[in-house]
Amino acid sequence: MRTQPAVKGALRLFSRIVSGLAFAAASILPAAAFANSAGINSGLPLPRFVSLKSSRVNMRVGPGPEYQVEWLYLRRGFPVEIIQEYDNWRKVRDVEGNEGWILGALLSGERTAIVAPWNEKNNLVEMRSDPQATNAIVAHVEPGAVTSIKSCRESWCRVEAQGVSGFVRQNQLWGVYPDEALNN
């Protein structure tokens, strides 16, 4: 979730200008300043999915408060993928492929997913009572809906959205890797 659509274009232009300035500044810093320090900071594998802990999170162009804010996320539980670590900052990628840095304290290990964000026709996704395509449909979920992931196995994930739980095919979720097994 981002800022209001009316300012999206202006923010995108602004963020590209700021990104260009940050890139220029970063080019004079030692290369080690942005080196991937996997295992040194958290000891957790990279890449990995997490979610936003707060309902207001800034994504910056670099790993520190002195860097400009590129995006403002306004949804607690929104999934992002950590792709790099530096000190207590995490470089993340969102569902649209935008990358930037978020303070690690603003991220949660709670697993969430976005339902079929690539579905341009807005076809509803079936949530079933059990992990089989022949079982009863308990709900139809809109593409872009954020769900909580309870578990995943054998290409199905048990999810919960707006108080309804059921199973969705794993390949219909952004926020879990193909064939990833989870027991939350």
Kindly describe this structure.
- The protein has 184 residues and is mainly β.
- The protein has 2 domains: 5-110, SH3 type barrels (Roll), CATH 2.30.30; 114-183, SH3 type barrels (Roll).
- Helix content is 11%, strand content 39%.
- The chain contains 1 helix and 15 strands.
- It has one helix spanning 8-27; strands at residues 48-52, 57-60, 69-73, 79-86, 89-93, 99-103, 107-108, 112-115, 125-128, 137-141, 146-153, 156-161, 164-169, 173-174, 182-183.
- Strands 8, 11, 12, 13, 14 and 15 form a 6-stranded antiparallel sheet that branches. Strands 6-5-4-1-7 form a 5-stranded antiparallel sheet, with no helix packed on it. Strands 2-3 form a two-stranded antiparallel sheet.
- Strand 4 and strand 5 form a beta hairpin.
- The longest helix has 20 residues, at 8-27.
- The model is unreliable at 1-40 (pLDDT under 50).
SSE blueprint and pairings:
Layout: H1 8-27, E1 48-52, E2 57-60, E3 69-73, E4 79-86, E5 89-93, E6 99-103, E7 107-108, E8 112-115, E9 125-128, E10 137-141, E11 146-153, E12 156-161, E13 164-169, E14 173-174, E15 182-183
Antiparallel strand pairs: 1-4, 1-7, 2-3, 4-5, 5-6, 8-11, 8-14, 9-10, 11-12, 11-15, 12-13
